[in-house]
Amino acid sequence: MKCKVCRQPAVIEVRRHNAGFCQGCFLAHCRNQVERAIKDHGMIGPGERVLVAVSGGKDSLALWDLLLQLGYEVDGVYIGLGIQGYSDPSAEFARGFSAEHGAKLLEVDLPDDFGFDVRSGAAADHRVPCSACGLSKRHIFDRAALEGSYDVLATGHNLDDEAAVLLGNVLRWDLAYMARQRPVLPAGDGFPRKVKPLVRLGERETAAYCVLQGIEYQVEECPMATGNRHLGYKDALNAIEERSPGTKAAFYSGFLDRAAALVAEVGEQSREGLHPCPGCGAPTTATELCAFCRLVDRAAEQKRRRLSLNR
Amino acid sequence: MKCKVCRQPAVIEVRRHNAGFCQGCFLAHCRNQVERAIKDHGMIGPGERVLVAVSGGKDSLALWDLLLQLGYEVDGVYIGLGIQGYSDPSAEFARGFSAEHGAKLLEVDLPDDFGFDVRSGAAADHRVPCSACGLSKRHIFDRAALEGSYDVLATGHNLDDEAAVLLGNVLRWDLAYMARQRPVLPAGDGFPRKVKPLVRLGERETAAYCVLQGIEYQVEECPMATGNRHLGYKDALNAIEERSPGTKAAFYSGFLDRAAALVAEVGEQSREGLHPCPGCGAPTTATELCAFCRLVDRAAEQKRRRLSLNR
Q: What φ, ψ does residue B212 adopt, rounded to 5°?
């Protein structure tokens, strides 16, 4: 197979585009896709300061690299989740990238700064681990972007992620979640602007980008996520994509083009009734503390109980 | 496991309902589900004459039986599709049910009455076989219902079918198809009323209904359908259902409850511009002959060419 662009031997095939690419043209293809996503959806304006949510995995490090390549001013923020055997090496990949590129990395540590890890927080708050983790990450990333006065918070959600989340939302016809599933959520109501510049790249592409660009990343999947529903939706879409390449991209872009407007009104309603949490100031619809503050409180309460039992 | 209703030993488990049933209570469960679908969606009024589209498979024969059990006046219509090794035995199951229940069966034969079978029609019209088959069945079933002055045409689409079709429509965000995917399509514009009374039963249930009710049916899948997209969507949904029983039912009923209204307007538009086909009188938006008449013409043209080549 030859590179679609320069006719040199290809090193990767992207079936969805029915195209092969050599190393240089593939890296350019990834930059082009990110540039196009940013432009099409008005994600980042010229001169704006960007904060990238960094996990140490392929997507967030590829995103950080691509945004730097495209000339943006980009810092990273890493959250230590206290997941044994997984969080420490993940942090090392984030720090390694930061050091190598002379890019600033903010760090927050769930156990040190909030007194719990994903496992204990989930147990104390009667959530599955992925729910406690997602809640914590959304809260902390949003705060970091606002407190650092960044113009925009960028996350590494790729096409596979977005298609799988959309499938889950559609299987439940959760119209409020569908309405919020956009590549750009504007700032306001106490939230920073949030953007997903990788929505035009699949996870095979972000992994290949890292390999071909020489970026070292956490290859392991999170051990807490094994068997979760999201991965089930990914498997289902992968099986369909295998028979009909392009299905995922058509599903996601068709949603944005034709269906998002139909559910948009429901999304407007879902931001109604927001007010600052009396605990942390983050926007919430809860009558007292926000969900993250409740998680912190319950994890602390659980810890106290455990300590008093051991006394 | 015990029967949820009478506590006798269960013969079947329905995971979606988290329930087991004995033979008698399962048959009653199926009748109840069909009765509820008919009532909830206003499918069939008292005293109305029903025509069931019969393939000889589990769904259509279970439907015919269930509607008779519920006291409706129901004839069947069978289409011989000319599929070698498959159509003849299918017809025998349809005729067997008809004879055993003293119920009238209309028969139409694609090769005898229209001069082509699914394979040759598909080739002549440059369609995949399932497309030529579906087009022919919709056309002929609609005609049979109107010409026989039936009040309603009932088809054996079950929950698995509807969920898989919905998934396909959603993956393409084909809003016009989504708008028409309702359990009842009202009569008008040259179409009979069309209803799907099995939408509350999965295909495992319709198969079990036939077995427990002693109905003999065509067990083989259509050999022309192997590997088609629809079966791929079914596989994907089955994998998700296996992890989360009830997903398919929630997907389909959630669509009807929350999303169908959002796309309904698109459906209204799709019936605009219909006029009678100059060939057969069936409603069409085509400028000249309807798609079925074109299929018939192309199949005939192809046959003439083949005959002249062989001369």
A: -75, -25
